[in-house]
Amino acid sequence: MASLPKPPPPPRPKTRGNYNCGRCGQPKKGHVCVGPGPGPGGAASPSSSSGAGGEHGLRRALSFDEAGTPSSPEKKPKVEDVDEAELDEEATVDVGARAVSREVMAEVLHRLGPRGVMAAAGVSRGWRDCAGRVWRAAEELRLRVLASSGAGLLAALLPRCPALSRLHLRMESDVDGTTLACIAFSCPSLRTLEITMAADAVNRMTGEDLSRFVSEKSSLSALKIGGCSNLDILNLCSSSLSILWLSDLCSLSKSVMNCPNMSELSLCFTEHSSDCTNLITLMDGLGRTCPNLEKMHISSKQLSNEAVCALENANLRGLFMLSLILGSKITDAAVASIVRSCASLELLDLSGSSISDNGVGMICKAYPRTLSRLLLALCPNVTTRGIQLATAQLPCLQLMDCGMSLCANVKNEKEGPYFGEINGGIRIIRKLSILKRQPIHQKLIIKHGNLKKLSLWGCSALDALYLNCPELNDLNLNSCTNLHPERLLLQCPNLKNVYASGCQDMLIGAIRNQVLNEFAAVEPSLPCKRLADGSKRVQLPQFLKQQVNALCLRPGRFLRGLSNYSCVSFSRRRTTN
């Protein structure tokens, strides 16, 4: 009879584990083990048993004993697996079903704008943490505040950027003292603040709001605010402020700036006739409160010889950039004060003044080795003689602006003269008795080795222009309506940008041919005669020139006629010279 298979043994009942210490063999209840681990046989050594009653120390959660010391096989791998999983989860973020390092993700978000970073924070918890890292590490923020957002956006966003040092705001909503208070509270380490206003936005901050903000921000070094039409007073006191730009100022009743470390100041006043700011008092106080001033820009119709003389009394010997624009009352007497007070100017801007060629001569004698930028736009008393004098006696000159200075469109005294703004617009100013009528036909000859930028926009009195400037790369001839193509010579091999908006089509073609050297490779198609020895070409008769002009101005054949005419004229001039 076959024997039946033995039944399987009954399952072992679940136990609660060992009640004795795995290192010393003592009961675990009320026991703190400080002895070494058990020997190879598993029994505790005598020293281990005696050490149970010795020094009592806190046992670490993970043991780092010798390699031969046994450890708990149940707990150690489990603890290590959990720690690695948590570390991997915290160090990565899911992007398209792939794990990406949070440092890499934060670097990617850093390249987005503020709106993109805010949108990324709503994707997931990991993305929100990466966006938070971007905000916490941000040092510069450029933000456009919409009219619907207002100061609420700044109150919600700026506290996330504790390390912010440079803040640039484009405000399309109104600005008041609350905005400044929010910025002062949220940005403790702010160093640069720039606020520009949109066309429909209104800046309602007062002089007290601005004074409080500057006094509270001890780390502020640069402040640029636009639309400051409601600043009734200007009372600033700061030892750290070095750059101050305020625009659209109007009728300041008090102007005190106690900033000993200020190096750059720009104050732009409105052109309204209601402006009654006392610039003489303002200029006189700058010498005592801002002795280290190096750059100054004042734009106001209230500028006069008295204000410039007050600047001379301020004794600002460190000035090397001076800009006094739209001061139609500034004459050569003010130039004499500038020469006496400023020893080494590198930039001088007297656009909109009434200085003459004599004033230009004083400037050339005072700064022959330092002046590199001279701007004399909107100066109706400056002629081609003064411009040629400046280019001949200022060897370091690199930029010169004479826009609308050689203007032939002078109206009668009742209507007033029309002058172009610095930005190219048109405005009407009151005619002074010292204005001179410019001759219509003027010739300008400039030969300079270092000149890089020349602006002659709106010089409608120019009839001929000859430039020999090897380093010139930017030329502005906008609205030079009376400049003849056959009287234009450009010997500027490095010329890159030429602006000729509003000029004659023939002049534009001549400029193109001279700049691109097209006339050197194209032979003239019109007949021409030579002398008996065949050495030189003679000019075409006057009636043939008129026929060529008529041919070029025909709409259907404009391009072909323009190309032929410009090539003939310039090839003829090159051979005759």
UniProtKB/TrEMBL annotation:
Region Disordered: start-end pairs: 1-90
Xref: InterPro entries: F-box_LRR-repeat, LRR_dom_sf
Biased composition (Acidic residues): 81-90
Biased composition (Pro residues): 1-12
Domain of life of the source: Eukaryota
Gene Ontology terms: cellular component: cytoplasm
Protein name per UniProt: F-box/LRR-repeat protein 17
Gene this chain is encoded by: LOC103643714
